[in-house]
From TrEMBL:
Gene3D superfamilies: Aspartate Aminotransferase, domain 1, Type I PLP-dependent aspartate aminotransferase-like (Major domain). Its EC number is 2.6.1.62. It is found in: Cytoplasm. Substrate binds at residues 45, 137, 259, 293, 382. Homodimer. This is Adenosylmethionine-8-amino-7-oxononanoate aminotransferase. The modification N6-(pyridoxal phosphate)lysine is found at residue 259. Its cofactor is pyridoxal 5'-phosphate. InterPro entries: Aminotrans_3 (IPR005814), BioA (IPR005815), PyrdxlP-dep_Trfase (IPR015424), PyrdxlP-dep_Trfase_major (IPR015421), PyrdxlP-dep_Trfase_small (IPR015422). Catalyzes the transfer of the alpha-amino group from S-adenosyl-L-methionine (SAM) to 7-keto-8-aminopelargonic acid (KAPA) to form 7,8-diaminopelargonic acid (DAPA). It is the only aminotransferase known to utilize SAM as an amino donor.
Length: 415
């Protein structure tokens, strides 16, 4: 047992693996207490977009902390929240007229599901069936786990998870089977379909084509099944566009955003909803209000960070930086294409992934061996099973990105 009382997430303390201490971070670099400079090649678990300690976001947080740190959000409002909501309305799909705040990706999903169920109840035709995509991940709370893939991560809780109908993942050759299954499930009546657009992150950086996303949306629209886009990971430019949904030219009925919403500096989430969903809850009757809140809903400091993120998107060449990173990722990945152990090379926007050898599953011992190798070489990469992916902050320098890929190439040879 180590001296620290901390119980870390997704960490088996029984393995006694070292837990490095980080002292500060800047751009794409983490500086550890023992003076190592580690490249953050996974954006600190997919959250950091513009880079660590972006001066505008850091300043916004400091300024807001002195002015108004926290205020109840039931029946009250404040300027940073209004600014974020207006900013989101300006750049997100036009049908998403309502912004509901929460604190994490998982809660944004819980809120989305509760909104969908409330919508059907208040329309007087209650529906409870939720459709999900195979290999999906939507968070670690009970509701979010219920709509995600079942496996080693949630075996202990499985009897408590509610039933959903799982639509097979659209592997390239099997997209028709996916669409047919979705069509059948929709025909039987469902409240909503929840999906990660274009890239299933925790499921192993599994990718599918925009045309399939577009068709899935069309099927749901045809049957009046609400379409929930969980863009918690894919949002904020990760897939090359602000939202992955843009590439399919679709607008969801409900949209979940978190991770990059504050540039990755501080927790905040929103669930955006279309007007009919808000309208279904709108009445002089208090029993129809939306029953969801948490203590820190729309915390002003977090909202100030999100407002700064929106200003960065408006005023800095973020889209150019993303386009440039997409190109560099493509080139670096292509250079690994001939390696005999690198398989299933894939890229969606700023996200690049490959499999090492044949599939072994999340708990295979290849992942921890790779993890250790990357750590020893001062690169933060965290393989999913035998899938190695690179998802850096958009500010990562050429030299830094090249070093990441040199270490991956050596890992392919040595681990
Ligand atoms: C990370 C993630 C979540 C959960 O977000 P948390 O902030 O970790 O609760 C939900 N959905 C997707 C697609 C994610 O990648």
């Amino acid at each position: 047992m180590s001296g620290s009382p901390i119980w870390h997430p997704f960490t088996q303390h029984g393995l006694g693996e070292p837990i490095p201490q980080v002292e500060r971070a800047e751009g794409a670099i983490l500086v550890t207490a023992d003076g190592r400079r580690v490249i953050d090649a996974i954006s600190s678990w997919w959250v950091t977009t513009h880079g660590h300690a972006h001066p505008r976001i850091a300043a916004a947080i400091a300024r807001q902390a002195e002015r108004l740190d926290q205020i109840i959000f039931a029946g009250w409002t404040h300027e940073p929240a209004e600014e974020v909501a207006a900013g989101l309305r300006a750049i997100m799909p036009g049908n998403l007229t309502r912004v509901f705040f929460s604190d994490s990706g998982s809660t944004s999903v819980e809120v989305a599901l509760k909104m969908a169920l409330g919508y059907w109840l208040h329309r007087g035709e209650p529906r409870h069936r939720i459709l999900v995509l195979e290999h999906g991940y939507h968070g670690d709370t009970i509701g979010a786990m219920s709509v995600g893939a079942r496996g080693a991560f949630n075996r202990a809780y499985e009897p408590l998870l509610f039933d959903v109908e799982t639509i097979p993942f659209p592997h390239d050759a099997a997209a028709r089977a996916t669409l047919d299954a979705l069509e059948r499930a929709c025909r039987q009546g469902a409240a909503a379909f929840i999906v990660e657009p274009l890239v299933l992150g925790a499921g192993g950086m599994l990718t599918y084509r925009p045309a399939v996303l577009r068709e899935m949306h069309a099927i749901c629209a045809r049957h009046g099944v609400l379409f929930i886009a969980d863009e918690v990971m894919t949002g904020w430019g990760r897939t090359g566009t602000l939202l992955a949904c843009e590439q399919a030219d679709i607008a969801p009925d409900i949209l979940c955003l978190s991770k990059g919403l504050t540039g990755g500096a501080i927790p905040l989430a929103v669930t955006m909803a279309s007007e009919p969903i808000f309208a279904a809850h709108y009445a002089p009757d208090r029993a129809r209000m939306f029953f969801h809140s948490s203590s820190y809903t729309a915390n002003p400091i977090a909202c100030a960070a999100a407002a700064a993120n929106l200003a960065i998107w408006r005023e800095e060449p973020v889209r150019e930086r993303i386009a440039d990173l997409c190109r560099r990722q493509g080139e670096a990945l292509a250079a690994l294409a001939d390696h005999p152990r690198a398989t299933a090379l894939r890229q969606v926007g700023t996200i690049a992934a490959l499999d090492v050898g044949a599939a072994e599953g999340y708990l295979s011992d290849l992942a921890p061996r790779l993890l250790r190798f990357f750590a020893e070489n001062d690169v933060l990469l965290r393989p999913l099973g035998n899938t190695v992916y690179v998802m850096p902050p958009y500010c990562i320098g050429d030299d830094e990105l090249q070093r990441v890929y040199r270490v991956i190439a050596r890992a392919l040879d040595e681990v």
